[in-house]
Every structure is written in structure tokens, then in C-alpha cells.
Amino acid sequence: MVEGLRAGYGRIEIVHGVDLRVAPGEVVALLGPNGAGKTTTLLTITEHLRPLGGRVRLGDRPVTGGPHRIARAGLGLVAERSVFASLSTEANLALGAGGIRAAVDLFPELGPLLPRRAGMLSGGEQQILALARALAARPRFLLLDEVSAGLAPLVVERLFGAARHAACELGIGILLVEQQVRRALSVADRGYVLNRGAVAASATAAELRALTENGSADYLS
Fold it and tell me: Listing from the earlier edge strand, what are the strands of the sheet with 190-195?
């Protein structure tokens, strides 16, 4: 999926030659301490930041050309509270490629909220709205950036359960950036650990859980 990615801001390189692979129907966690380059990596994959080097592929096909073209190719991104606050919940869903009905089928709890302005929703409801809009479009791959930040545990379980379901039932490949390591590894199949902009470890979720439990990988947090 990602080969030799180099990324940063201006002349300052933060991500150094990162390789990542996500298969269809797989959840992969991207972990690491604050400042490791996780969000920078996602923003560069979707070309919200211009890459300094490397390439992104969907299957055998390289994708480039800016965020809108990349999204049309089947690569989605959900960041923290990525909704249009001044629009209704219904209008937010209508802007997505999947439409309103598909989104509400995935998240029935959005039905009663359709007339409500998105900015008036709780933080958890906003994050559910953002994920519903993205999943309804049935992307081939979806990048999730810190979707659990500041949310109640029950909401986090709902979001992560939906991501796992999307992988298993819809065949969507998920790349999950998450600060809550144990929670991320509870739904992931595999994981990568970034440290200072480079891949420090790559292993199954079970192997990474073992590292966190015995305290032998301080770069995980």
C-alpha cells in the first residue's frame, strides 16, 4: 500500500521511508508515541500533505493527484470530528458518496439525529456521523486517525466494532492510528510501530500485545 513514504512540513522531514501494507478485510494498527509521525503519515497518504518521496498503491495501481482523486480511487480518511458543523446530520450524510440510507443502515442511531445540526451533536455522535459517512461510500481502504480521542468507552467500542465489522463483512482494509494501544490491538490483526518517523516494529496484534504487557517496548507509548 505504501512504499518508501517520506513526509514532512516544508524542508523538515518527519517520516523517513515508511513501508506499510494493508490487505482488504484487514485491520492494521499504526502505533507510536506522540510526535512519531502517525498523523503526518495518514495526511501524506491521502495527499492532504504533499509527499516528499515514495508512493501509494491500491492493489497494483499507484494513486496520486490530490485528496479528491485519491478518495474517488477508493481510499478514505476519517479524522477527529470531521463533520460540517453548520449543516444538519442529514446534509452531512448526503454529501458522502454512499448517501443517507446506507449510512443509517450501518448506524441506526443516526436516524433520530438527521434533522439536528451536526455542531450540536455530542463528540461521540459527531464521530459516529463521520465514520458512517465514510463507510457508507464503501471505500476499498479507510484510514482512521485518533477516532477515539476524548470519547466515552461505550462510544469507542461502537466505533471500533464498526471498523472491525467493515473489515470482516465488507472487505474494507482499515489502517487505524490510535493512542490507546491496548484498545487498538483488541480489534487489529497486525500492527506497525512508528518511532521518530520510522518503522520500529511490525508484528501481529498478539505479539504487540505481549510486548506491551511485559513492558519491553517503551516506544509503543
Answer: 75-78, 141-145, 173-177, 27-31, 190-195, 198-204
**pLDDT on residue 211:** 85
Strands 12-20 vs 2-9: parallel, antiparallel or unpaired: antiparallel
pLDDT of residue 59: 81
Q: Which positions ≥6 away from 107 have C-beta within 8 Å?
A: 128, 131, 132, 162
CB 51 within 8 A of CB 18: no
Rounded CA separation 86/29 (Å): 32
User: What are the residue ranges in the chain where pLDDT is below 50?
Assistant: none
pTM of the complete model beyond 0.70: yes
Distance CA 144, CA 37 (A): 14
Q: Are 106 and 135 in contact (CB under 8 A)?
A: yes
How many other CB atoms sit within 10 Å of the CB of residue 119? 13
| Domain annotation for the chain: domains and CATH numbers | 2-83+123-198 (3.40.50.300)
Q: Where does the chain have alpha helices with state H?
A: 38-45, 67-72, 89-94, 99-106, 123-136, 153-170, 181-187, 205-214
Kindly tell me the number of DSSP H helices and DSSP E strands found in the chain: 8, 10
DSSP conformational letter for 180? -
Strands 198-204 and 190-195, bridge-based pairing: antiparallel
